[in-house]
């Protein structure tokens, strides 16, 4: 797997990941609270498509045990769903809780048949985020969103192919001194590194 080369550097990358965005991840865009959602038009195209489809039904395998330990999540993964019936509206996800330290929660959503990056560029969820920034996750177009600079939740969306994408969310339960978006970005990089190229159609 392509992710093997990233396992040894995940921990060190936590100290320097602010450079992943090219700017301070917590720097807010302008706009008052409760304002209209920020929209950005269309996302950049994916130049080297990757394939999420092999992970259908096993979202928790998108990050390896070694990667999770480096991120501070040594607990076993538990599959689950986001949303409520009807089931066709549920979103496959995996949740990792740092139960020992109670410092945070990591969630990864896999969307092998939905362009979630384009949806988040359009702000289809209707939510307002004070921080909305285009980022690159190892060459793949992404979006970083936070409700406010002091928020304890950071959301990353990444496009990996036409009609395929993933979301990563890190929620800080207690202050640890590590940037919450740093952790979310590192997790997103880990998932991208573990994906194989999209086979020719």
Structure characterization notes:
The protein is α+β, with helices and mostly antiparallel strands. It has a single domain, classed as Protein Transport Mog1p, Chain A (3-Layer(aba) Sandwich), CATH 3.40.1000. Helix content is 18%, strand content 28%. It is built from 5 helices and 9 strands, in the order H-H-E-H-E-E-E-H-E-E-E-E-H-E. A 7-stranded antiparallel beta sheet has the order 2-3-4-8-7-6-5. A two-stranded antiparallel sheet has the order 1-9. A hairpin with a 2-residue loop joins strand 7 and strand 8 (164-172). The longest helix has 15 residues, at 180-194. The protein is globular, with a radius of gyration of 16 Å. The two termini are 21 Å apart. Mean pLDDT is 80; it is low at 3-16 and 18-31.
């Amino acid at each position: 797997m392509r992710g093997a080369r990233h396992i040894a550097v995940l921990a060190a990358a936590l100290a320097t990941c602010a450079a992943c965005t090219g700017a301070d991840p917590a720097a807010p865009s302008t706009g008052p609270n409760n304002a209209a959602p920020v929209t950005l038009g269309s996302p950049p195209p994916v130049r080297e498509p990757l394939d999420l489809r092999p992970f259908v039904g096993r979202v928790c395998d998108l990050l390896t045990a070694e990667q999770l330990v480096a991120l501070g999540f040594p607990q076993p993964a538990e599959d689950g769903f986001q949303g409520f019936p009807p089931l066709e509206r549920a979103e496959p996800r995996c949740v990792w809780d740092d139960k020992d330290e109670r410092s945070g929660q990591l969630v990864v959503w896999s969307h092998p048949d939905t362009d979630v990056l384009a949806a988040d560029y359009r702000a289809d969820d209707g939510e307002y985020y004070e921080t909305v920034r285009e980022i690159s996750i190892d060459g793949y177009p992404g979006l970083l969103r936070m409700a406010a600079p002091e928020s304890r939740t950071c959301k990353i969306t990444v496009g990996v192919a036409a009609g395929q994408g993933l979301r990563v969310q890190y929620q800080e339960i207690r202050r640890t001194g590590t940037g919450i978006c740093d952790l979310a970005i590192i997790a997103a990089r880990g998932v991208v590194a573990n994906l194989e190229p999209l086979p020719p159609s």
